[in-house]
What does this fold into?
Amino acid sequence: MVTPTQNATTIEAAQNTTDGVVLSTQGLSVYYGNKLALRDISLDIYRNQITAIIGPSGCGKSTLLRCYNRMNDLIPSARVEGRVLFEGTDIYTPGVDAVEVRRRIGMVFQKPNPFPKSIYDNVAFGPRINGIKGNMDDIVENALRQAALWDEVKDKLHESGLALSGGQQQRLCIARALAVEPEVILMDEPASALDPIATLKIEELMQELKQRYSIIIVTHNMQQAARVSDMTAFISIDRENPDARIGVLVEYGLTQQIFTNPINKETEDYVSGRFG
Amino acid sequence: MAGQQLINGNFERFLRRKRLIGRIFWVLLLISTLAGLIMLAALLIDLALEGASWLTPTLFTNYHSRHPEQAGMKSAIVGSLIILALTALFSFPLGVGAAVYLEEYAPKNRLTEFININISNLGGVPSVVYGMLGLTVFSRGFGLFKPNSWLVQALNLPVDPRNGLIFSVLGLEMRLPLGNSLLTGGLAMTLLILPTVIMASREAIRAVPNSIREAAFGLGATRWQVVSRQVLPAAFPGILTGMILALSRAMGEAAPLIILGAFTYVPFLPRTIWDQFTVMPIQIYNWITLPQPEYRVHLSGAGILVLVAVLLSMNALAIYLRNRFEKRW
It folds into this structure.
């Protein structure tokens, strides 16, 4: 068990070496058509840490998350400016294939969305479409074990994924994402549709997973951000022009600091529940 | 209290009145609902009374005959089934392909909008018009294969004045133009139902939740992988249902095939898709035009019973498939 102080020290150590940065946005702005949605976000995501993105509804948290695996490409009107460096390479340069980016940066969505197929086929889908070689049974078992779902489903691998409970479905979606061996996992409010017990399971799972993966989680739930994350980014609506609803990065730092001793007044108001 | 004065009135009478209005509308709505059902029941009962006793094995085993007791619709039944199969064969890939393109690939621009509007327009075109189109394009090939056409003269093609150009591809006989053949009939029917197939398939594809596409894209699937491995399998039951309903419409059509030269008297079974043919609605139509009541009333009634039975079973199959594979997300 790592104490918060020790943990903070390791993060600071990581921050001092560029090797610790897995993803980095530099001057990132996102437009939907002519409307600016996110402005000038510069943020470093550290390896094997859980980074939480918090902020009020509609501030662009999910938009930011979807920049990391180019999911915004699927929205015809979306346009991205600035750079997103993944292991030092800008994923928005023309030579980079979004399909490859998405294999290496997995995603878990707000609402559990298993495919209408068996549990086995759900997990095996990613390895199959990416031409991953190996014993598929082992790949599936390994992914389900990592997602702490194996013991619950090992006897019904060929039943529909949709027959599972909500929390199990979400862990199935996590297993599905893990099966293609990503380096980063993006989680878009992964527990917002789940009950408290299922939520706790997901949070425990995240602690396990960060040993091997870097995790970015968008969450509405500030207690959740405080419980699970190492780093927290607070995004809010630009106050100078509130009607335009432009998302800006207000503060970014160690979770402990953001929640106990924030530098910015707006952050303090938000984390103490005075707005948002 | 001041409030009481604001809401006095004869509530009792008003309540009775609004209850009455409610009941009147309930009855009117029920009548609207039953109207269709009553018509169908009247039709079926009338047909059964006129035609049921003529519903004999002869109807299925014999060709049309000058003697009503020996007359059957064997060639029409076989013709209908072959036309149906050909139509399904052509319209499925074309219709689903167009639907996939429009739903999953097409950019949202004016051209796509233009295509959308015109697919709906095509759906409203009367069926005889498709018959004319089929006659010009498929059956006659714009007259390009007549001995005196510029194409034949320019290329010095060895055409037969009656059958046009006959050649062989991989051992299979081919003809241009297609003539009054089953193939022409199937192609014209394909044009006729294509708008319906496209719209039904688009509906089914649109019903697949976006979260499924996102999940697949998020795992590093290409668009084609998302479409072929997730969207189409999930949409397939809906596509199939639409397809069957469209085919059952094609099955009942006579007008375009009459224009295409489907014959009313075909005393043989087709051996290839280049043969002439007839279909059930045309055979029935032919019987209705004859003066003898045996044909006009009884045989046609029996024929319609067969046709209606086929159509109803196709619709039942469509409903079964829809219920059987309906997905809850």
Q: What stands out?
A: Chain A touches chain B at residues 69, 71, 74, 76, 99-100, 102-104, 106-107, 109, 111, 113-116, 125-126, 129-130, 162, 173, 176-177, 180 (CB under 8 Å). The two ends of chain A are 33 Å apart (CA to CA).
